[in-house]
Amino acid sequence: MSKFKKKKDGGLAPINTASLPDIVFMLLFFFMVATVMREDTLMIKNALPLANQIEKLDKKNPVSYIYIGRPSDNYKKFGTAARIQLNDKFADVSEVAAFIGAERAALREELIPFLTVSLKVDKDANMGIVGDVKQELRKVNALKINYTTGSGDALNN
Q: How many CB atoms lie within 10 A of CB 14?
């Protein structure tokens, strides 16, 4: 009297799933390699102005981004005037020097002279705050500055 009975022949052969883990790991590896993580979450409205003579930055050199614009709808509690965003927080003009110092400290020593500061300024932001940021950058000797723009006709801004 056996407890288990052997199945009799007559059913379909089971599907071979031996290669399924290989396929899953291959897909997982592909998405891990192909996915780019977002560096900053924009807390400001950032409609970039258009320009027709633009040039791409060299990817070899490090770039630090400073965002300037009005707070977006989710951050209305910070007011409606143009604000500066450094990484993921609002900042004052006086904090720009510390931000550049931290960015330089995070770089290898041979890359520090090539640090470019890219200003992503909303097209509706006033130039007073942009001038203040540029003065702070001059004080800390961050002289490689560029403006990020969209591609298009400059007369349509």
A: 6
Q: Which two tokens stand for residue 74?
A: 């989710």
- Is this model's pTM higher than 0.85 or not? no
Per-residue pLDDT tens over the stretch 43-92? 999 899 999 988 888 778 899 999 999 999 988 888 888 999 998 899 99
3-state secondary structure at position 95: helix
Q: Please name every residue paired with 86 in a beta bridge, in sequence order, or none if there are none.
A: 66, 89
Tell whether the model's pLDDT for residue 2 goes beyond 80. no
**Is 21 exposed, middle or buried (CB count within 10 Å of its CB: 0-12, 13-18, 19+)?**
exposed
| Ranges assigned E (strand) in 5-156 | 50-51, 63-69, 83-86, 89-91, 116-121, 145-147, 150-151
Cβ neighbours for 82, distance < 8 A, ≥ 6 positions apart: 68, 69, 70, 122, 125, 126, 129
